[in-house]
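Narrative summary of target 7.
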Amino acid sequence: MLSLARHPSLAGPALLIALLASSGTGNAQATNPECFVELPVFDPLGVKVPFQIIEARAHEDDGPNLLASPREDGPRIGESDRLYFPRTWIGSGLVYVTLKAVHQEKLKEALGLTRLGRPLTLKASLVISSCQQRTSLRVGEKDTNFDVMGSMIEGRIGGCQVDGDWWIRAMPMFGGHNERSVYEGFIHPTDGSFSLTAHMRGERHILIVGKGRHPLTAIGVDVTAGGGKTDVGVLDLSAKCPK
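Modeled conformation, tokenized:
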């Protein structure tokens, strides 16, 4: 939903919905608005999977689907994961979007969700802040199936003297916009070994190593939830050692 209560310059949701549903030609005949947001969806290993935008609403749980009767100056779908919107949306609050998997049964089987009786969908709340945006989403999770909270990433820094303010952080490669999703670990100055243990989701993460205010390297790591351990081996930073 476009949440407009915090924007007194707008007359309220009724005015916005009236604007988006104003008269015009159908989707097939109208030119797409100049602004858009891309919503690519990725599986736990970082592979893009096809999803189709099916709803865009000005209220999270109710109100009309603004894509049901597309108008000339309202939102519409371009490519399957791209939502076009009028420039008047910028800075006006939240938009609530629903996407549905294109290949339902195949994706459910790949993600171990074959018992899911309903269609596989994702919901996203978006802050429209610019004319061209991208917000990635993640579906599914890589899991050990054990009831253990923490997951671990471990390895060792090689090729540099590990002294001073070295640091290591991990975050999801895709999605994670509305949840705590940045984690930090500790690098031992004696041998450069490191470990990062946290309640990370079973998905592909970006692992960043740095010193002081400078990041030195970043790699992709597949994290397994439920107590899974990922050993990234030796990260050779001999060509990037800070002075």
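The first strand starts at residue 35 and ends at 38.
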